[in-house]
Every structure is written in C-alpha cells, then in structure tokens.
C-alpha cells in the first residue's frame, strides 16, 4: 500500500543511524556476554545507550524528520 498521506515513518539519516548504532551495540554486547569478555559487553551496552543521543543530536542538526 502506498503512503498517500506523506508519512515517512522515520526514514531519515538520524533515525537510520540511531537504529544502526543500537543494533551494532547489541551485537557487540551479546558477543561479549557469550564469549565471557565483560569489557566487550560494556562497550556494546554503551554504544546501545548512546545511540538515541546520537539520533537526537543528528535530528537537531536538521537530519531528522520535521516536527509536527
């Protein structure tokens, strides 16, 4: 079904970057947990926690969706 109402569902560079960073963080953190390397798990968790902050910063720079 096509979007006739102009909805982009968050398809912006800010949203894509935040989601990508969060996925990478969870993958790194999960690898750290599975392999028993706590430092890797902490780094992955930190990346996942920082991803929405990066997304908000990018959105503030004009790379996000316009506020309604």
Helix content: over 70%
Q: What's the order of the H and E elements? A: HH
What gap, in angstroms, lies between the N and C termini? Answer: 23 Å
Unreliable sequence segments: none
The general outline is elongated
Q: What is the percentage of strand-forming residues?
A: under 5%
Report what the structure shows.
The model has no long low-confidence stretch (mean pLDDT 88). 72% of the residues lie in helices and 0% in strands. The chain is built from two helices and no strands. By secondary structure, the chain is mainly alpha-helical.
Task: Give a quick summary of the entry.
The chain is mostly helical. The protein is 72% helix and 0% strand.
Name a few traits of the molecule.
68 residues; mainly alpha; 2 helices; 72% helix; 0% strand
Blueprint (SSEs and pairs):
Blueprint: H1 13-35, H2 38-63
Helix pairs in contact: 1-2
């Amino acid at each position: 079904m096509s979007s006739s109402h102009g909805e982009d569902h968050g398809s912006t560079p800010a949203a894509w970057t935040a989601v990508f960073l969060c996925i990478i963080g969870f993958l790194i953190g999960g690898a750290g947990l599975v392999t028993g390397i706590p430092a890797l798990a902490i780094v992955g968790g930190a990346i996942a926690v920082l991803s929405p902050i990066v997304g908000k910063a990018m959105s503030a720079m004009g790379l996000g969706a316009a506020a309604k």
